[in-house]
User: Which sequence fits this backbone?
């Protein structure tokens, strides 16, 4: 799983050709959001707010009540990957002030955009799959996702129980890891605590006060929604970086292009459904090579990357089906037991 360095001449040629082709693609196009991306923002906010409003109504049947919680959690995941993720990269509109404002969509979903910007942009991009440096590899020691990590606390059961760990990932990110990372980055903890309390007061407090449902049912529904969001978000990441065949280097190589191609695998790049709901994360090579470009352009950029890599003799990894990618992730977990 160590990375084999690509020929420097091939890499230089790849960069030059790809840059030229991407510039040609953007002739007459804006690299920011298109109308479809703004529709995603409106749709995500409508479902998030609409499901919350319905959760506050008395008389909703318990099964529908729980379904609404799950829909709300998925709406939060949708907003995070389709809007907030681009915004923290200053890629949604490519205007710093507007994207900084749009990044606060993340606050509506329980996460802090300032902390995420530091942890994601600084401690994931550029250091993917590298030793203990990549923040995204931190699974609290519960499961082992890199050969450079110690054995999993779940032992030989990790490949079966990983999904339960992922389901709790959103709660961990929002209510534990944000505070730990805020301390690391010297972010104000008081502001962070106020934002979390406001999130809980609105999303959990209003249904508790207005729905007339037992507190246990409301809390259970809230947790179910958070778990749905965790699985949806983490699954998109795990099946692009943490799959059989990707490299897990012990140290950061000098060449970024080779590093991206060795540690990242695309998933079903021609899937219109994933492009519509996944924020472009399934076309992850394009995201790591062009993080400052809105995800709506990734399908076109991926076609350019694929052709250019083939022409220059560089590896481009892809699992053509979503299920194949999930299976490749499962095999990695099983191998790392």
Assistant:
């Amino acid at each position: 799983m160590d990375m084999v360095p690509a020929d420097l001449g091939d890499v230089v040629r790849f960069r030059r050709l790809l840059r030229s082709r991407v510039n040609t693609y953007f002739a007459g196009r804006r690299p920011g959001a298109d109308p479809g991306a703004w529709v995603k923002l409106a749709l995500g906010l409508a479902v998030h707010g609409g499901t919350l409003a319905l959760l506050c109504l008395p008389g909703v049947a318990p099964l529908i009540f729980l379904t609404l919680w799950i829909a709300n959690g998925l709406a939060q995941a949708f907003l995070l990957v389709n809007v907030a993720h681009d915004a923290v990269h200053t890629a949604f509109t490519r205007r710093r002030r507007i994207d900084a404002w749009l990044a606060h969509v993340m606050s509506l979903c329980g996460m802090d955009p300032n902390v995420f910007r530091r942890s994601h942009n600084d401690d994931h991009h550029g250091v993917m799959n590298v030793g203990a440096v990549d923040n995204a590899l931190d699974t609290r020691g519960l499961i082992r996702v890199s050969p450079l990590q110690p054995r999993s606390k779940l032992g030989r059961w990790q490949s079966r129980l990983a999904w339960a760990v992922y389901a709790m990932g959103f709660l961990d990110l929002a209510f534990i890891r944000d505070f730990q990372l805020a301390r690391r980055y010297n972010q104000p903890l008081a502001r962070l605590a106020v934002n979390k309390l406001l999130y809980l007061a609105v999303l959990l407090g209003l249904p508790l006060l207005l729905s007339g449902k037992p507190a246990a049912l409301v809390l259970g529904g809230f947790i179910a929604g958070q778990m749905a969001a965790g699985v949806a978000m983490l699954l998109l990441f795990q099946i692009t970086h943490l799959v059989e065949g990707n490299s897990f280097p012990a140290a950061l190589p000098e060449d970024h292009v080779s590093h991206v191609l060795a540690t990242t695998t695309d998933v079903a790049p021609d899937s219109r459904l994933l492009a519509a709901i996944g924020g472009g994360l399934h076309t992850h090579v394009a995201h790591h090579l062009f993080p400052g470009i809105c995800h709506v352009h990734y399908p076109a950029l991926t076609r350019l990357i694929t052709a250019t890599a083939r022409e220059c003799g560089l590896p481009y990894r892809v699992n053509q089906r979503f299920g194949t990618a999930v299976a490749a992730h499962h095999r990695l977990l099983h191998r790392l037991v």
